[in-house]
Amino acid sequence: PKIYALQTTIDEREKRISKLRTQKNKIEDAIFADFCKHINVANIRVYEDRELQAAEKRAQERLEFENQITKIQTMLEFERSRDTAGHVEQVKKEVLNLEEALQKCQKNEKKYRKVIEDLQHEIAEIKDRLLDQKKKIEFQERDISECTKRAAQLNKDYNEQRKRLQLIESDNEKLRMDRHNYFRTAKVIFSSELKARAKRWDEKHLDTLRMRKDKLFDEYKEQQKKKRREAELINARAQLQQLESRLRYSKTDKDTAEKKLRILMEKDLVDFQAKLAQYE
Question: Full-prediction pTM beyond 0.85?
Fold first, then answer.
């Protein structure tokens, strides 16, 4: 398995290298398109290979010329020592011709060397620009990857907060239903009790019962108000703390949330007082 994994990694790197080489060649072709078209070559790599071969060929020819000159000069010295004037003149002409050819080759070599140096300098600059572009692309890809991770994390946090808010709303709805049921039960109990005993009790007992009812409802109201406020404050504070830590609410948003909470509590209190008033 390790060998397979290593082979897979090597294959992926080779594919990536091949892809980068292809991209580099495309960029080079785009940059040197006019130049290659002007000199009638397929691409800059063909031109580099051709110029390299030409330079090597010229160096080889120059070496051969120098060897021939050395050989001829040796022969010339030998013929001079033999005092063969005619042969010496012929050798001199050959030497002069070879020297002229060598000078011509040297001039051409300087000319082509200058062209090659300029092209190499230009290619080096292009390679530097390609390297800079590659680094910029890598930085951009790294930034994109980090932004994608941050977006995924924020989306996850948002979903978690939404679920928590749904649970809080569900709990609040359950508390409201329980409170409503308590009101209905209390109303039924007190109404039944009053109707059953109204026929047997006199006005004094009815007053006592009303006072007892009022006292019980006042106590019940205070207890329910206290419990409801505590529960709502705990839920509201927990909700605000979670939202502040996750979503970084501003102070204005926090004040608005507390104001809405106070309005909701005041509305519930008014509704509760209105329902109690029905029993009096």
Answer: no
Instruction: Say which residue, 159 or 24, is predicted with more confidence.
Output: 24
3-state secondary structure the chain: CHHHHHHHHHHHHHHHHHHHHHHHHHHHHHHCHHHHHHHCCCCHHHHHHHHHHHHHHHHHHHHHHHHHHHHHHHHHHHHHHHCCHHHHHHHHHHHHHHHHHHHHHHHHHHHHHHHHHHHHHHHHHHHHHHHHHHHHHHHHHHHHHHHHHHHHHHHHHHHHHHHHHHHHHHHHHHHHHHHHHHHHHHHHHHHHHHHHHHCCCCHHHHHHHHHHHHHHHHHHHHHHHHHHHHHHHHHHHHHHHHHHHHHCCCHHHHHHHHHHHHHHHHHHHHHHHHHHHHHC
Instruction: Answer whether 240's CB lies under 8 Å from 254's CB.
Output: yes
- Check pLDDT > 70 for residue 4: yes
Q: What is the mean pLDDT of residues 52-76?
A: 79
Where along the chain do its domains lie? 2-153, 154-279
Alpha carbon 43 to its chain's center: 36
User: For a pLDDT cut of 70, what percent of the chain falls above it?
Assistant: 57
pLDDT (tens digit, 9 = 90+) per residue, 158-206? Answer: 777 777 777 777 776 777 787 677 667 766 665 665 555 555 555 555 5
